[in-house]
């Protein structure tokens, strides 16, 4: 198994003992991303865009882009934000969007409002 740690200095550093992403053969596993720098300011759309931009930086560091994403997971603090998150998310995945689940959770790291992880394939 060929395993390589992927890191982008344009995305936030991990806040724990994990990697931003791991590339195994042709599959990239991107850890859950949060928008710590703007979380809690009441703008779920801005948080979502910041997260997806960070994911874009990580994808680019692996030589990939949004079109390579095959699966995403969205974790929301409040399911009432689903529409706004979905609208922002859709601007990054307008054609042939990846498989996805969106769930409400009791709490997220650093008390952010949304966290997103993705899996991409070359």
TrEMBL record:
InterPro entries documented for this protein: RidA (IPR006056), RutC-like_sf (IPR035959), YjgF/YER057c/UK114 (IPR006175)
Superkingdom of origin: Bacteria
Coiled coil (residue ranges): none
Family: Belongs to the RutC family.
Protein name (record): RidA family protein
Biological source species: Ravibacter arvi
């Amino acid at each position: 198994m060929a395993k390589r740690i992927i890191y982008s200095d344009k995305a936030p550093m991990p806040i724990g003992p994990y990697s931003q992403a791991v590339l195994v053969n042709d599959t990239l596993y991107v850890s859950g991303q949060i928008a710590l720098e703007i979380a809690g300011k009441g703008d779920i759309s801005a948080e979502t865009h910041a997260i997806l931009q960070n994911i874009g930086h990580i994808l680019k560091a692996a030589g990939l882009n949004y079109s390579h994403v095959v699966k995403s997971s969205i974790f929301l603090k409040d399911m009432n934000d689903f529409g706004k998150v979905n609208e922002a998310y859709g601007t990054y995945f307008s054609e042939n969007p990846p498989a996805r689940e969106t769930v409400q959770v009791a709490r997220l790291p650093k008390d952010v409002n949304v966290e997103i992880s993705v899996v991409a394939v070359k």
